Fold this sequence. Notes:
This protein is an alpha/beta fold.
Amino acid sequence: MLYYSTGKNAPDATLAEAVTRGLAPDRGLYMPRRIERLPDSFFAGIDRLSFHEIACRVAEAFFGEDIPREELDRIVCDTLSFDTPVVKVRESIWALELFHGPTLAFKDVGARFMARMLAHFIARSGRREKVTVLVATSGDTGSAVANGFLGVEGIDVVVLYPKGKVSEIQEKQFATLGRNITALEVDGTFDDCQRLVKSAFLDGDLTRRLTLTSANSINVARFLPQSFYYFHAYARMKRAGAADRLVVCVPSGNFGNITAGLFAARMGLPVARFIAANNRNDIFLQYLETGVYAPRPSVATVANAMDVGDPSNFARILDLYDGDWQTIRSEISGYRYDDDRIRAAVARVDRECGYLLDPHGACGYLALEEGLKPGETGLFLETAHPAKFRDTVEPVIGRSVEIPERLRRFMEGEKLSVGISADFGDFKDYLLSR
């Protein structure tokens, strides 16, 4: 399958080219030339299939023309070494728990898949020079990518993160690893980190001397596999007799996660509609209300993975809907919550339902409480384990949150970050001097 750029000013790319480049030459994001609609028979029997069986079928629709079936199945099964269960929180509202992977965040799925796919293409090409993977993170992306690529031969990873704007546990998960993982602590915001990554791909000097790719959700190998757990969630909900009139609510930052859900819907997944839950960085909500996309500098919140002022994947949503604002707002609604509402939701749901939310999941839960219509069932994405946000969660619930053993091991590591300014010249010099 060929991949085109949302910028509409670059030649089509093969899957291997799209994955290796990350960003198209015209600064656009790659999109598959077609989206296969899966047959009704697949959905009729989906509740009898395993997660691996579901994901392999979905992966084949996207990548089956470019990767041999046996190898693709191996990549999928190696990626999904953990479950993504659904849990009933209260009547009509369920949580899709995406924090059971190695770094306890939803991005484990996309990061692990991309690492294995990129390693496949490197091995197939016989490439001798290393590939440098650049990734900007506001929290969980860095840890998922770093751990997904840790020790992968032929790949160096450079993680850029905003100084003082990620939790200590998140930072420890990618800044203590060493080996082929470098953490750059940028004196700026997440948007600065994202700008540095995008600028690197457009710098001729860098692209001539280094083989660069991105592991942010701008990369098709990162965001497309995230559709796997939407299908699996539907199967689980159908098994529980709760799949009719299903509304899916996604805590949204860079919008790769909800875009994967929209792709799943285009493939036939029976979802009534989507809700994008925002924190104070509500650029998408403003677009839904006005039809005008007006990015602005991000502000720090307790739901830091959603602190994005210019979501990269908005370009994909526009492209998917041919820029039709009315259709977009008819299929996606939006809600916004400030830190006080988020904290209050964590405390209330813990007290009333016995379910502990993380700050991002709290936004999703609140949006379903506010936005569900009679007869609908809501499913929100619980995107990270609440123990990763103890500083926010513990004061409002009045007790300690148990830290899973996997997180505890990270906390014992020594921070190995390199400090850097938000100036692109400094970043370029660093990459060329390595």
